[in-house]
Amino acid sequence: MRSKLDACLEAVNQVLLGKQAQVRLAMTCLLANGHLLIEDLPGMGKTTLSHTLAKVLGLSFQRIQFTSDLLPGDILGTSVFDKDSGLFVFHPGPIFAELILADEINRATPKSQSALLEAMEEGQVTIEGATRMLPRPFFVIATQNPVSQGGTFSLPESQLDRFMMRLSLGYPSMAAERELLLGAARRDLLPLLKPVLDHQGLALLQAEVGKVRASDALIDYVLRLVEATRTQPQFAYGLSPRGSLALLAAARAWALLGGRDYVIPEDVQTVLPSVVGHRLRERADPAGHGGGALVQWLLREVPAL
């Protein structure tokens, strides 16, 4: 199973050049049963990463293009009257897939954004009074443009908190971009990809994450980090219990990717920016979107031992 996990990472890295750290974090999020938010400028490879993960992991894939006129029914589905049977027949929306790409999620109105809340938290959707289960596994990758760009609606804290991790791909290195320019188009490589993991293998790996040992001292370190966000004056508000659970789960998944069955403080420190950066706000600027300085303060000031 370890060799298959390495093969998954290698296959994705062959398509998304020069982004090994971000690919590893994305895989960490998936193994930890979380959802991923990718915030970056257009054209950085967000969609390519999502599609490549779906192909390599053998997951059914649906892309939902979020626009200002998107309605919740366009995401969840709707019932249509069938004149032959005289009954309303439910037609499932694109949410009923194993990997969902919610592309440019912050271009849609808050009403459409909120259509994902129940799906991401409960793995089900309630439509017209009926609850329908979503497939397993169920993984949402949402992309958003920087909030400084026009035509965007900021995600509310309740929506942001559903995402276990937030990443930014950034510009490629000069060497990676040279290889990109000289090689085949990345999208042309997607049809050539073969699934490396099946559903059973992915489920086994996700189950293994929960078995990765976290010592009492490691748990105390996580608790100190969380407590600092709740008590120090520069934080507008502290991490929720969902945030602390996400931090430990991501650290366990990162340890598993590193070939260990136990968590060390460096695992927590590596995933901390991606897990808590979008959950934190400075008291002086509670409406801002920069938790990076607060994360660096946590890494610098909170002792690991």
Q: CATH class of the largest domain, anyone?
A: Alpha Beta
Q: How many angstroms separate the termini?
A: 33 Å
Overall, the morphology is: globular
The SSE string, one letter per element, is: HHEHEHEEEHHEEEHEHHHHHHH
> Any idea what the CATH superfamily of the largest domain is called?
P-loop containing nucleotide triphosphate hydrolases
By secondary-structure content and strand pairing, the structural class works out as: alpha/beta
The DSSP helix count reads 14
How many strands, what sense, and barrel or not for the largest sheet?
5 strands, parallel
| CATH fold naming of the largest domain | Rossmann fold
| Overall helicity | 40-55%
**Main β-sheet, spatial strand arrangement:** 2-5-8-1-9
Uncertain residue ranges: none
What report would you give on this structure?
The chain is of the alpha/beta class. It folds into two domains: 2-200, 3-Layer(aba) Sandwich (Rossmann fold), CATH 3.40.50.300; 212-301, Orthogonal Bundle (Helicase, Ruva Protein, domain 3). The chain has helices at residues 2-15, 20-31, 46-57, 72-76, 110-113, 117-122, 157-160, 174-182, 186-189, 199-211, 216-231, 241-257, 265-276, 292-301, and strands at 36-39, 61-65, 77-82, 87-92, 99-103, 124-127, 130-133, 139-144, 165-167.
